[in-house]
Amino acid sequence: MRTHHCNELRESHIGQTVTLIGWVNTVRDQGGVIFVDLRDREGLTQIVFRSEENSEAMAASHKLRHEDVIQVSGQVVKRIDGSDNQKIDTGSIEVVPTSLKIVNKADVLPFPLDKELSNEDLRMKYRYLDLRRARMSKNIRQRSVITSAARRYLDEAGFYEIETPILSNPTPEGARDFLVPSRLNPGRFYALPQAPQQYKQLMMVAGLEKYYQIARCFRDEDLRADRQPEFTQIDIEASFIQQNDIISLVEGLLQAMFKAGLDLDVGTGFPRMTYREAMDTYGSDKPDTRYGMKIIDLRDVFAATEFKLFRSILEGGGVARAINAKGFAGITTGQMNRLNEIAIQAGLPVKTLAFIKCENGEYKGPLWKVFTAAEKEALIATLDIEEGDIVFFGAGAVDTVSTILGRVRTEVATMMELTKDSTAFNFLWVVDFPLLAYDEETSGWGAVHHPFTRPNSEDLALLEEGKLAEVRAVAYDVVLNGYELGGGSIRIHEKELQAKMFEILGVGPEDQAVKFGHLLDAFRFGAPPHGGLALGLDRIAMLVAGEDSIREVIAFPKNNKGADLMSHSPCQIDLKQLREVYVQSTWKDTKPAPEPGTVASETDV
User: Fold this and answer.
1) Are 13 and 79 in contact (CB under 8 A)?
2) What is the pLDDT of residue 54?
């Protein structure tokens, strides 16, 4: 149906007869001459209709409108001097058609395709039109390019691409499972995989040694800009490797992907930072290091303080810390209220962040008057406080203070637009995560990564002694500009150690046999040392494309309520279908059924 695509013709094609097909991008009537920009996924070619050259085609061109699908045949000619368009690759030529065929007419569009649209629901409803826009087409193309680069890299590194089941058992990955009733097994359910974790470990037991998969994963959790109920991982597992082997492999993989997607050389040998250092310095286990504003410990400043609050906290093993938001003393009331809100959500026990600021040569803030002259002098020196700075304080348990100041740091950076024009790609590894975390609500221990993560061999004695909070994991996350790109670990491969880990997590022998019996059984037959990592492909594609949401790099995403407004899912299922899978509806029709694609409120159920 065509001889060339719409971004292919150049001056070397002048004089040739060509056939093009695509969408009408624009139509311009210049009084006797009609210019049409014809578009396909590759780009644009200008088509020029003149009555003296083809009156029939000229007459038909008057009926064209945006997004009509047309086919033209004609001769490639050079544009008139001075009319070149340097913004497009085909800007020095145009096609004078000898024939025009209108393949399909388009109705009036629900929104223009040449402008950005703030109404996301409208974009999602007509996603197939949204994807025609140049920006979205480019995003999907870049995603494809980096995915292909990942496959090439892993293929060349000797990895097998192997698929794992979508219908499987629930797994303890930290989120709710999507459940699927089984018609052939009444009363039983499959779960959609949160990750292929157990399957890839079993592949290592099977002796396949090097596995990867562009894996679809499903988690029923609250949504945000970088989270979807279904998402894609580049899942990797290998045998007979250690942490440094995985880190080296993944750095090379990311280097290949960013080179393919952005023609950017990111290098290898990413900096490494321990989890403790990341939390103490940035208040986050995925720190954005493109700007400073580091958390500063003030123990030395207040070592002999008479300020009762700080003294009691420090004597009780807590910390007093602060960040200096340089040049932000002009913070507005609205911005301050927002920071207070974020700090409270992060665990601030009072309603207001403590601060001091320096304006017009004067130090202001409720804390300033309680400090001694020596403490003030030490504080100014330690935090490098200058005119126009504002300092935010945190005091209390170390993890709480780190989290509060970390969230405040990130929000202040957004308010100050510290990374708005940044072109930096600051990769780093966060290592030495804690193996376990205590959950106050359940009064039990939970795995920081997952139950299959290997304890650091140096800390096995601490595990035996019950000093669980001090045990480190052989786990590692790769981070870019404040986003976790992926995480992994060296796995437990011994049955006894894995069973002990389950026991610590409150999974007794009976539950172990039901939920993990296949894995524990496999470990009896010579399981090799192994480990791996999963990269978030959606998130990487988002950063490569320069977007702020993974919805912009997924062809057909869900909205922030988990609904697909185009296909009207999730939808209600009739009773006949429910009976076939032995599921009884508990839905109470106390209100009219919600519109397809919407999510019912709690009062509807």
Assistant:
1) no
2) 77
